[in-house]
Specification:
Layout lengths: L31 H30 L5 H26 L6 H19 L3 H22 L1 H6 L8
Helix pairs in contact: 1-2, 1-4, 2-3, 3-4
């Protein structure tokens, strides 16, 4: 006999369970690679957002050459921070759609890291760090364990 949910007499999809509740007893754990990708992607988004907020603060406390240009840059950087932050949340929650935005973020970070590394000094260290994080996240999100955890099958990859 099927269980009912909500209105009287409306059958639920799983006998004995309300709609949306699974009878699966398998643990829904997040693989370490997905966790690492989510944390590193969130770190990238946080750093970008901090740069955007810092730009806004400097806009109002400093003397920018062009107010409109400085404001546009700060708001653009804040908007760009949304991509890795949303991707990180999606990875953390194991959402299928999150792999694409995370990979785009990493593919954009690689040339930024390379260019920074070419400048030498502290810039080289920062560039190497950006590149290493981007490569680590890419390796994590293309790993078969991660793709399976995100619900991406062999034909979907």
């Amino acid at each position: 006999m099927q269980g009912t949910h909500g209105a009287v007499g409306v059958p639920s999809p799983v006998p004995g369970y309300p709609a949306g509740v699974s009878d699966s007893t398998a643990p829904q754990t997040r693989p370490a690679r997905v966790t690492a990708a989510a944390v590193l992607t969130a770190l990238e988004g946080t750093v970008i957002a901090a740069f955007g907020l810092g730009s806004l603060v400097m806009l109002f406390t400093g003397d920018p050459d062009g107010m409109t240009q400085a404001l546009t840059m700060a708001l653009t950087v804040l908007a760009l921070a949304a991509l890795p932050l949303l991707a990180a949340r999606g990875l953390w929650l194991r959402r299928r759609w999150s792999r694409g935005p995370s990979m785009i973020t990493q593919l954009l970070a690689l040339p930024v890291g390379w260019q920074m590394a070419q400048n030498g000094g502290a810039w080289a260290a920062g560039g190497a760090l950006i590149g290493a994080i981007a490569l680590a996240v890419l390796v994590c999100v293309v790993n078969p364990t991660a793709t399976e955890a995100l619900g991406i099958g062999p034909r979907d990859a």
